[in-house]
Amino acid sequence: MSTTSLSHPKEAFLIILSKMLERMAYYGTRSFIIFFLIDIEIPREEALEFYGQLSLVVYASMLIGGVLGDYLVGNKISCFIGGGLQILALLLLSISNVETAQTGLILFGLGAGIYSPNNFAMLSRYYYKKKRLVSPIVILFYVGVNLGAFLSAFVIYDSFDYKISFIIIAIILVLSLVPLFFVNNIPNTKNSPSRYKDGTTVSILAITIIASFVYWGVYELFGGFLNLQEHYLKDSIQIESNNLWSSMMLNSVIIFILGIVFFFVWSSKHMSQIQKMLIGFILAFVGFGIYFILPIELNSVHLSPFLFAVILVAISEFFIQTALYSLYLLLIPQRHFTIFFAFFFFLFTIVNKLVANLSEHYQLYDNKQRSELIGLVAIGIVAIGILLFKLLFKPQPNPDFTEEDEPEYKEGDQDILDDIEDNPHYTIE
User: Fold this and answer.
1) 319-334 average pLDDT score
2) Residue 132 CB neighbour total at 10 angstroms
3) Dihedral, CA atoms, 245, 15, 216, 328, nearest 10 degrees?
């Protein structure tokens, strides 16, 4: 198959750099916000409630960000609004009293929610018609998010007081907005036709979104037991509980390494997004299966299988999430991209909360074997569903859609679509 030389616009790297710094600030704040609230004499139960509501505020305010970005001021200005609100929130939090802390937390969540969907939507404008560049740039975006979360652990030191910590994070947020000043000539893709007919678009998005909800719901089921297993393992091999080593930190490192490798692999080799999701769910089934077999009270004997499971689940997350983000970018209509993207994440929050409530109601968190078995069965069913979808579903391309810089095809060439392979309805002219 012949190829055409394609290159990433410099604006894409600036957008990802901005996102990485914003995530560093966001997770840096979340890492100590409960201790701050308790320190200013907010009762512990109330502080935990504030912390729990912060995520809900973030995802709910994404809808506001969607309206601003798609219909009012555009994605770039919306990012500045979101970042500005976060900076203002941190300045209020630095005053360190109850009244300003409550207002500051609301503004912080509001700002984060407005910023996030508009950042990714801005990136989508450059790649909506360049499907062969989508997988590599989504990898860089996802690595940027995880790298920001990873670096947030090194932003704040115990010796800093809260005021200094908030000011440092506010400076990081200011820096996160600087690259966006150089993001210019954003393509106007809002009137672009969809890549596929409506039925195909809805079908692919529906199956992948449901799969994502199941994956993270199962992750939630395993999460509590995983924390306990990790605690016992640390005690057994004499690692302090406050040490930076954790499965979450290892997860970020693995995703960073995978990102570097697959950025180059998927820049030259094309794999369908559905195939990536299928691989991700198979790896998740094996990884979660190992967690299921291991006991709660781990010791040094279990270190190797535990780490192997952590690695498999991290790889599964990488495959599933990069495929999901790629499908968002390729399939969501550009006219409504930001609001659709925001809605998916808001819906994810509701589903995740529902899973947590149902698990508590049916006391799944009290029974490791039962809850993890339910999770494994769910992962297996979805993996089979994705396989059947890949084999049986026939996508219908939109004849009005044209790809930019598409390589020429010769008779006999096989087009590898971003969502499904061997599409019999694709026409080679």
Assistant:
1) 91
2) 21
3) -160
- Cβ atoms of 248 and 129 closer than 8 Å: no
Q: What is the pLDDT of residue 215?
A: 93
If we measure between CA atoms, which residue out of 309, 322, 223, 232 comes closest to residue 272?
A: 322
Q: What region, left, alpha or beta, does residue 100 occupy, with left being phi > 0 and alpha being psi -120 to 50 degrees?
A: alpha
* Domain spanning 194-398, CATH class: mainly alpha
Enter the pTM of the model: 0.85
The proportion of the chain whose per-residue pLDDT surpasses 90, expressed as a percent, equals: 35
Section 211-227 average pLDDT: 81
Distance CA 388, CA 381 (A): 11
Interatomic CA distance for residues 165 and 293, integer angstroms: 42
The pair of structure tokens assigned to 116 is 């996030």
Q: What is the mean pLDDT of the chain?
A: 82
CB 403 within 8 A of CB 129: yes
174 close to 91: Cβ distance less than 8 angstroms: no
Predicted pLDDT of residue 422: 38
Chain centroid to Cα 201, Å, comes to 21
Q: Which residues are CB-neighbours of 420 under 8 A, at least 6 positions away?
A: 204, 272, 274, 390, 393, 395
The hierarchical CATH code for the domain 10-182 is 1.20.1250.20
Mean pLDDT on 176-204? 86
The ranges of the chain annotated as CATH 1.20.1250.20 are 10-182, 194-398
Closest alpha carbon to 209 in 389, 372, 360:
389
User: 132 to each of 40, 196, 326, 403, how far by Cα in Å?
Assistant: 52, 16, 11, 10
Question: Confidence band (pLDDT; 50, 70, 90) for 157?
Answer: low
Neighbours of 336 (CB within 10 A): 15
